[in-house]
């Protein structure tokens, strides 16, 4: 079955102007163009547009979507399963925020009491959910579901004071990394301080510390571009520096 561009626009809610733009950037090409110059779309293009809209809903850029859909190994069944889980996580996140807002309204109306920890609980749940979406598969495959679940539970139990201290430790860590990168000496006092700060930072969420796990975590920092980007955006070269320091001191 074929569809005109106007029909596709009506079915999908995507404007004809946007569909033409998708054609221009080769994100969604029509199946054919008839003798009158009209774009015609088939079922394959309809399926691709559906995927584009799902990924847009999940905040992927058009460039990212094109890379995903053009990958010869793209599996639509697997993609749908992942999208379903991501949207389900988003739904749970929104429900947690709504519940937190409702409780906060009751608190200001004098109906219930809220601790400082209660006021921020929804945001911690959201952070765990986001971390799961970004890094969950890699971390679970490396350390197991049980360890990751324990770490998530420990994070959710952190008080606001714990969260503030954790942020302070991370700030100090990057300050020391900046000093180290200017004058790298893995056996120096700055490197030792960086090791201690990173170990302390991990202690907020790790169920139990081990040097092997510590070394494994920083290995991910240099092997996985997403982790590497997080560190290097804050301080260029910090992922590699941290890797060498931890490998040296974690025994």
From TrEMBL:
Keyword vocabulary terms for this entry: Activator, Coiled coil, DNA-binding, Transcription, Transcription regulation
Protein name per UniProt: DNA-binding transcriptional regulator, MerR family
GO molecular function terms noted in the UniProt entry: DNA binding; DNA-binding transcription factor activity
Record-linked Pfam families: MerR_1, TipAS
Coiled-coil region(s): 77-104
Segments passing through the bilayer: none
Keyword Secreted: no
Domain HTH merR-type: 2-71
Native source organism of the sequence: Weissella bombi
Domain of life assignment: Bacteria
């Amino acid at each position: 079955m074929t569809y005109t561009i106007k029909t596709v626009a009506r079915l999908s809610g995507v404007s004809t102007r946007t569909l033409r733009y998708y054609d221009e950037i080769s994100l969604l090409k029509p199946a054919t163009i008839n003798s009158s110059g009209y774009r015609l779309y088939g079922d394959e293009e309809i399926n691709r547009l559906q995927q584009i809209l799902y990924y847009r809903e999940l905040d992927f850029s058009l460039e990212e979507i094109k890379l995903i859909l053009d990958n010869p190994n793209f599996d639509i069944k697997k993609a749908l399963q992942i999208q379903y889980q991501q949207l389900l996580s988003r739904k749970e996140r929104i429900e947690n925020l709504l519940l937190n807002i409702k409780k906060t309204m009751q608190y200001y109306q004098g109906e219930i009491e809220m601790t400082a920890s209660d006021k921020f609980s929804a945001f911690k749940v959201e952070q765990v959910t986001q971390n799961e979406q970004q890094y969950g598969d890699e971390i679970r495959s490396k350390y197991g579901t049980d360890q990751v679940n324990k770490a998530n539970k420990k994070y959710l139990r952190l008080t606001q004071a714990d969260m503030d201290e954790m942020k302070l430790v991370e700030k100090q860590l990057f300050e020391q990394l900046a000093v180290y990168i200017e004058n790298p000496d893995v056996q120096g006092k700055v490197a030792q301080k960086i090791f201690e700060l990173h170990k302390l930072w991990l202690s907020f969420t790790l169920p139990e510390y081990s040097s092997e796990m510590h070394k494994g975590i920083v290995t991910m920092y240099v092997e996985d571009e997403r982790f590497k980007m997080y560190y290097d955006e804050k301080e260029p070269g910090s992922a590699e520096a941290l890797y060498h320091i931890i490998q040296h001191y974690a025994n």
